[in-house]
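Handout for the seminar on molecular recognition.
Each group receives one record of this type.
Step one: identify the two inputs.
Step two: read the structure output and locate the region that could contact iron/sulfur cluster.
Step three: write two sentences on what you found, then compare them with the reference statements printed after the record.
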Amino acid sequence: MRIRINGTHFPLETLGPGRRLGVWFQGCPLACAGCMSRHTWAPEGGRESSVRELLDLWREALDKGAQGLTVSGGEPLEQAPALAEFLAGAALLRGAHERAGGVAHGTRADFLVYTGYEEEEWDPPRTRALRHADAVVAGRFRVAEPTALVWRGSANQRLLPRTALGRIRYAPHLRRRATGPAVQVVVEAGRKPGAAPVAHLLGVPARGELGFYERWLAERGLRLKGRSWRP
Ligand code: SF4
């Protein structure tokens, strides 16, 4: 099945516990004021991929000791059938990996999905897409409601464990405040010859932190031409 994504990264260490594979879906109609990921809004942006390609990445990540998979966006539930197929395939690979004796650090890899849709907005296709999610961070980003809670961008967003694994893995984090770096900086060469490099800020920055990273990158000779958090 085809799937539109903005990008992937391993190891991701700022959206969920441990070292994870991050997959960012492309396309979001919710247009939250203050969203730091405006580059993921256009449904025709990013690049076309396939569930098969993402499952290959997940298999490689498991072989490298991945402790989880985080799906964010954009809005993953805008591509609910593809998300459902991807997570079902990822669960099968996780099981096969465990049967082969490859459980990372003695704990099962978990699946965390970010969605701007509140639980009440999950229609049957969206609910089916989240069947294999061990935990979900749900709710619009509200710029006027800051929070220090780890992995959440605003105080209204809820971290919802949905499976036995999710309840165990996320119980210590439900009320935990963020400590340590909330953002991981990844600089990638331009995708076309001669194109400028792209800096990705992965994670949920605290208020004011984006300006800090702009200055941090400038000190290292990277002056930002466009910023995904500005119109
Ligand atoms: S914060 Fe999330 S849900 Fe809101 S517009 Fe941005 S990508 Fe969409």
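Reference statements: The pocket of iron/sulfur cluster is lined by residues 28, 30-32, 35, 37, 40, 73-75, 116, 140-141 (CB under 6 Å). Residues 2-173 form one domain.
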